[in-house]
Amino acid sequence: MHQQNKYDTSPSPGLLQPLPILDQIWQHITTDFSERLPNSWGNHVIFVVVDMLSKVAHFMALSHPYTTKDVAQSFMDHVFQIEWVS
C-alpha cells in the first residue's frame, strides 16, 4: 500500500503577534517607491511616506538615478519640514 499524500513536515507557525497600539501621529511611518512610471517632467519614480496612525501620506517625485542622499533630502524637504517643524 502506497501513501497517497505527503505529510506536512514544516513547523507550526505559532501565534500571531499583535501590532503595537499607536498613540501619537508620526510615531511610526512606512515608506515605499513606485517605479517605472511614465515620464512626468523628467521624473519616473514616486517616493511615498505614510503615517500609520493618521494615514496622512506624502508623495514626492524622483528621477533615476537617485541616491540615498536624494531620498533623505526629499524626506527632509517635504515631510519633516511640514510635520515636525510646524
Distance between the termini: 74 Å
**CA-atom Rg in angstroms:** 21 Å
Which series of helices and strands comes N to C?
EEEH
> What's the story with the biggest beta sheet?
3 strands, antiparallel
Structural class, by secondary structure, is alpha+beta
- How do the strands line up in the largest sheet? 1-2-3
What does this structure look like?
By secondary structure, the protein is α+β, with helices and mostly antiparallel strands. The chain has a domain at 29-83. Helices cover 19% and strands 22% of the residues. The chain contains one helix and three strands; from the N terminus they run E-E-E-H. The protein has a three-stranded antiparallel sheet with strand order 1-2-3, with helices on one face. A hairpin with a 5-residue loop joins strand 2 (45-51) and strand 3. The N and C termini lie far apart (74 Å). The model has no long low-confidence stretch (mean pLDDT 87).
Short key terms for the protein model shown above:
22% strand; 86 residues; flat; 3 strands; alpha+beta
Task: Set down the secondary structure blueprint.
Layout (H helix, E strand, L loop, with lengths): L28 E6 L10 E7 L5 E6 L5 H16 L3
Antiparallel strand pairs: 1-2, 2-3
Briefly summarize what is shown:
The chain is α+β, with helices and mostly antiparallel strands.
